[in-house]
Design goal:
By secondary structure, the chain is of the alpha+beta class. Helix content is about 35%, strand content about 30%. The chain is globular.
Length: about 150
């Protein structure tokens, strides 16, 4: 079931970022890791309910988030992770999740996906294990998709 869940989120992430940012992300090596809260990150959590019950945690380093939002805004320079920046990152997560949900449905897996929720250190699942996939976007930065196991 892990690959059936990972692949739609990975494929959707690549497609959405390539469409919005105009740069195809490079997928890094899938690995297991322990979730650790880190300052200077924008964290998005998505819950999946239905035939599959999982949590997906996207971790965007602040610099990467600002670069990505600057590109999304046509070059407008974003210099801080403010409400507008966080909202744009959440919208990107919403697009990725919606596409992944559709892919899961077409693969015969019926799920409901919650809207992405911006999370702080008190709600990060510190210590839990996750399948983690890094995605690198040239000139923008790298972020992780973490599927909590």
């Amino acid at each position: 079931m892990q690959a059936e869940l990972i692949n739609p989120f990975l494929t959707s992430s690549v497609q959405v970022i390539e469409t919005i940012i105009q740069v195809k992300p490079t997928v890094g090596k899938l690995h297991m890791k322990e979730i650790q809260f880190a300052d200077n990150y924008v964290w998005l959590k998505i819950r999946i309910h239905g035939q599959v019950e999982k949590e997906i945690l996207f971790g965007f380093p602040d610099r990467m988030a600002m670069n990505m939002v600057s590109t999304m805004l046509g070059g407008y320079v974003v210099t801080e992770v403010d409400d507008m920046c966080r909202s744009a990152v959440a919208e990107l997560g919403n697009m990725i999740s919606g596409n992944a949900s559709t892919m899961l449905y077409h693969n015969g897996i019926t799920v409901d996906i919650t809207p992405p929720k911006l999370v702080e250190d008190t709600t990060i699942d510190t210590g839990k294990k996750a399948v983690s996939i890094p995605l690198r976007v040239d000139r923008i930065g790298e972020f992780d998709i973490n599927i909590i196991v």
